[in-house]
Amino acid sequence: MSSVRGLHTDILVIGGGAAGMAAAAGAAAAGASVLLADERPVLGGVLPQCIHQGFGLGYYNQDLTGPEYCAREEARFLASGASYLPSARVTELRPDRTALLSSPEGLCECSFDQCVLATGCRERPLSSLGVAGTRPSGIYTAGEAQELLNLGHYDIGSRVVILGSGDIGQIMARRLVLTGRTVVAMAEIKGSLGGMKRNHEECIRAYHIPVIFHATVTAVHGYPALTAVTLHHLDTGADETVPCDTLITALGLIPETSLAEPLRSGDGYPAWLHLCGNADHIHEIVDSVTTEALRLGRSLVKSH
Fold it and tell me: Are 98 and 170 part of one and the same domain?
């Protein structure tokens, strides 16, 4: 693997989802040289796996699917003149404004004036709850299940318990029913559903998803495959064994900022490093991600 040195760009954008594409397009259209590096082979982040509608109402005034929204954002990015490096993982961000990238073409050291971190967020895993039992197959985060089902068309089981009632959990509940699976229960530790009211109506109530409030999963059973979970009812203190072959967790999202953490000091991050999209804070809708990222990209050129 060869090492390529001397590459420079005005603005390095890390991440090719909605935030990265919009920030890169905004900066490039304003006259900056921009390089977008994304570890995936295609642009869009999670948008291609979100085949449901609900995207674009705030920005395009149209009810689009994730792939449709992605296509519009990708077209704007490609027309902006920004450079794109797919399948490229940024392994290190350095205080001297350089980044080390690893791609199929080899290692590349890139220097830059400004950097936009648009790495999105990660899902909180089941292990964060300290659930007892073995670790059988059949346990997925909601995003993993969505990708496996919608893009890979894999069989992820037929009788499903969903832990957590955030938007992606509700959307996956509907998708599971539409693909012929049974949602045995959605367990929510609070006394009300999370997420947007639209999903309450269009996913939970429209598809008669059984929701158990004040409940959580405290143990999983079966090996090598999941056979049941223990559902603990916080209001009564009772434990219930619920047979299932799939457990999907929708426990919340955490901004993915691991690349930036070594650069943090008492005053925060360096002035040249800008968090964008869900890497900055979790957004309810992608439309606000696009709006904020475009504004950021343009502002970096004006301040340059």
Answer: no
Residues 10 and 156 grouped into a single domain:
no
Q: Which helix (H) or strand (E) holds 67?
A: helix 66-79
Average pLDDT over residues 102-107: 90
Domain count, the chain: 2
One domain, residues 129 and 118: no
Q: Output the pTM of the full model.
A: 0.94
Residue 176 near residue 183, CB atoms below 8 Å: yes
Q: Which residues contact 227 (CB under 8 A, 6 or more apart)?
A: 136, 221, 243, 244, 245
Q: How far apart are CA 105 and CA 255, in angstroms?
A: 29
Q: Containing domain of residue 160, as a range?
A: 125-251
Structure tokens at 294: 């475009």
Q: Which residue has the tokens 């869009």?
A: 44
Residues 149 and 219 in one domain: yes
**Residues with Cβ within 8 Å of residue 186, at least 6 apart in sequence:** 161, 162, 163, 164, 165, 169, 170, 173, 204, 209, 210, 211, 212
Same domain, 288 and 223: no
pLDDT digits (tens, 9 = 90+) for 44-80: 999 999 999 999 999 999 999 999 999 999 999 999 9
